[in-house]
């Protein structure tokens, strides 16, 4: 069984027009610190500029779909999974190259490359650019139809807001936390193309001048409109696409509008989005696995004496926080530095482990970096709900901690 498109181009065009009229209203996310603003002034990511540069591409692609609906755009539109997998296959070659560079740089080794290899990588990049819009359209179609099957939408008989994405690399994120505790104090969007040496330089400068724990991290996606989605595995890319749509949907509901009100609501938002995204991805893959996905990958359980990432990361968070609660910042930071080297030796490319790392990743309650019970609570609530739509209706009106506690009791 295939999922057929219902993500109407003309509907997207209307949304584009609205967005272009309102694009000047997109807020920035400045820091109150003049020092930090000065340090990152040339590295900030402008949402407004990105919208103005990217929306015309989507606009004209949608026009071509509307005017020439039967045009063969390289791959049959009846097989969106094939389109997405072809893109992922090319993207994996670039990711492998980038991971080798990142690993060598973090280890302090020289990264050996050559002109021939760089030429091949550039050919891959060019091929990705040529296939970007058709792949975005395939992801939008298949996720939109899955959401429609679950009957989740603001408006009847159509998916609103529409699923609209960009698979360009998302911006990176500057994360700030106090040194004496693990707390998400500030996040600022930076350009996606800053190098690892650039990241270290910015982090070190802010740490020395502001006495903060600082991390510049890649992110999996961003709920702009279109949402930005980082392409990884098929399941991850489908899940992230649905995850970011969930945020776009929730902006019309009390839960989404309360995202920045406090840490608890942010964790509820992000964790619910993960649950939603994973269920949508699983639904799509369950439909497709008998056709395209002959050998779906299943995660193997982690058993001692294997190195169990989740258990080790959870232990790292707990121990570091214990040292911080004792007031021993230096011991906590030295411990996290040592653990980062351990993870790297085990093949996990984690550039930096500090308070800022745990402050950011900890807002996802299903992450081993988190100590929150929200994931278990929401999972139980989902299992007690009649459907995914029923689960969404239960949580979408949460606006404070009291609402949440009433719901999970």
How would you describe what is shown here?
With 409 residues, the protein is mainly alpha-helical. It has 15 helices and six strands. The chain has a three-stranded mixed β-sheet. The protein has a three-stranded antiparallel β-sheet with strand order 3-2-4. The longest helix is centred in the first third of the chain and has 35 residues.
Secondary structure: number of strands: 6
* Percent of sequence in beta strands: 5-15%
Report the average pLDDT across residues: 84
Q: Which structural class matches the secondary elements?
A: mainly alpha
Order of strands in the sheet with most strands: 1-6-5
Shape assignment:
globular
Query: What is the helix fraction of residues, given as a range?
Result: 55-70%
Order of helix and strand elements from N to C terminus: HHHHHEEEHEEEHHHHHHHHH
Question: Number of DSSP helices?
Answer: 15
Our measurement of the CA-to-CA distance between the termini, rounded to an integer number of angstroms, reads 40 Å
Quick one: biggest sheet? Answer: 3 strands, mixed
- Rg result: 22 Å
Q: List low-pLDDT spans.
A: 1-6, 19-28, 72-77, 292-298
Task: Note the main attributes of this structure.
409 residues, three-stranded antiparallel sheet, three-stranded mixed sheet, mainly alpha, disordered N terminus, 15 helices
């Amino acid at each position: 069984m295939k999922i057929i498109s219902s993500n109407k181009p003309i509907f997207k065009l209307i949304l584009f027009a609205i967005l272009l009229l309102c694009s000047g209203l997109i807020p920035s996310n400045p820091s109150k610190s003049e020092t930090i603003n000065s340090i990152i002034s040339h590295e900030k990511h402008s949402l407004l500029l990105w919208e103005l540069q990217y929306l015309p591409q989507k606009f004209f692609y949608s026009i071509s779909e509307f005017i020439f609906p039967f045009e063969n755009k390289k791959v049959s539109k009846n097989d969106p999974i094939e389109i997405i997998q072809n893109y992922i296959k090319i993207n994996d070659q670039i990711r492998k190259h980038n991971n080798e560079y990142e690993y060598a740089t973090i280890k302090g080794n020289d990264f050996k490359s050559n002109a021939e290899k760089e030429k091949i990588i550039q050919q891959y990049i060019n091929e990705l650019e040529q296939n970007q819009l058709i792949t975005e359209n395939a992801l939008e179609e298949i996720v939109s139809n899955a959401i429609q099957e679950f009957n989740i939408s603001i408006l009847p008989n159509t998916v609103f807001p529409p699923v609209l994405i960009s698979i360009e690399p998302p911006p990176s994120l500057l994360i700030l936390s106090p040194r004496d505790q693990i707390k998400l104090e500030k996040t600022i969007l930076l350009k996606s193309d800053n190098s690892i040496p650039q990241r270290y330089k910015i982090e070190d400068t802010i740490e020395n001048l502001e006495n903060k724990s600082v991390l510049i991290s890649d992110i999996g996606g961003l709920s702009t409109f279109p949402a930005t989605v980082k392409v990884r595995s098929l399941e991850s890319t489908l899940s992230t696409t649905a995850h970011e749509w969930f945020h776009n949907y929730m902006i019309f509901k009390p839960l989404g509008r309360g995202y920045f009100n406090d840490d608890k609501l942010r964790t509820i938002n992000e964790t619910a989005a993960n649950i939603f995204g994973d269920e949508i991805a699983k639904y799509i893959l369950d439909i497709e696995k008998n056709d395209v996905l002959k050998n779906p990958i299943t995660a193997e359980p982690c058993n001692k004496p294997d190195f169990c990432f989740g258990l080790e990361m959870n232990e790292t968070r707990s121990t570091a926080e214990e040292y911080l609660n004792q007031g021993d910042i230096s011991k906590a930071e030295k411990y996290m530095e040592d653990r980062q080297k351990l993870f790297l030796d085990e093949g996990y490319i984690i550039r930096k482990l500090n308070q800022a790392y745990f402050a950011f990743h900890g807002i996802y309650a299903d992450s081993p970096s988190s100590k929150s019970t929200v994931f278990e609570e929401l999972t139980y609530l989902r299992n007690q709900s009649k459907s995914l739509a029923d689960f969404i209706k239960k949580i979408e009106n949460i606006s404070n901690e009291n609402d949440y506690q009433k719901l999970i009791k």
